[in-house]
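#structure-requests
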Amino acid sequence: MLDIEFVRAQFPAFAEPSLQGQAFFENAGGSYACAPVIDRLTRFYRERKVQPYGPYQASRLGGEEMDEARRRMAALLGVATDELGFGPSTTQNTYVLAQAFRRMMQPGEAIVVTNQDHEANSGPWRRLAEDGIEIREWRMDPETGHLDPAALERLLDDKVRLVCFPHCSNVVGEINPVTEITALAHAAGAFVCVDGVSYAPHGFPDIGALGPDIYLFSSYKTYGPHQGIMVTRRALAETLPNQGHYFNGGTLYKRFTPAGPDHAQIAACAGMADYVDTLAAHHGVAAGGVHGLMRAHETRLLQPLLDWLAARNDLRLLGPRRAEARAPTVAVALARRGEDVAADLAPHGIMAGGGDFYAVRALQGMGVDADHGVLRLSFVHYTSEAEIGRLIETLERVL
């Protein structure tokens, strides 16, 4: 069992006076930052805010912290250190990768995308149609939101060079079988790009074991600073044309980061590894076991919320009704606009979100008016059982 009091003690937000009485249910938009990240970011700005990798101490220490962040996060994710890169955001990272594929691919070749994705892992790839690249859409079931791997198989042939899909949708919530889908794509000779933004907050995945060629997520949703993290496996990274400065083309992680790195925020990302190590030590498990602790806690809290929502006839619950099959990112379509319902929850101390959440294609694919939007209730492992009870009670009152 996850020690929830110990967990919450690692997040300064829970001791912040201005946040007392507030229950945070818009974590899919960005999580609270853990103390090690805040400490590292503050230290860097106070002591090491100089150009890194120079011969003087402040510069040397700054560079060492940046290297530490890359090394420890890569180890946590099960990949080589130079296969992990940082960028301004996942959207920007995906755009840069799409430009690399634009140069590598030939007219008539194909990319598979889904209508379950956040626009960040859909729009940049779809734009390649302007260069003669065929875009094939793997569509989800309009009732359940499910992506059927059998439907993907029917789209695959020797023209497909890349398959893009989410580990977990930010409105459907279902956890897609990354290993199975990756195997199908690889068997057809295609590379795989996985958007992990909505999954990674619920336990850092072992990307090396999952097998995709690209995996992207946002550290500001995994208790860290505002950065995009991307893993590009060596075989693909060395094949794609360099998108950075020409003289950096020989360094794997610099090939797809044309923007100058944010030194302080990269260094602060080591705090995420500090946090995982702290949880592992406290609970007497290996670092890899923290993922299971997080998921078990979230699943236990999620099922009562799903049951309550599913029993109502005045809303539509999107995605699976079993907590084991999904992340605790729960979207509901209501007669009222999602933003309006979120606004009604706010005076009761429930911080939730409403809108389309840049998942316009996914909502449309399920017959939901994206302009009307949905109410989204999202939490992570630091959410308490008492907060779930309070959320249900408040929803009962507001709805």
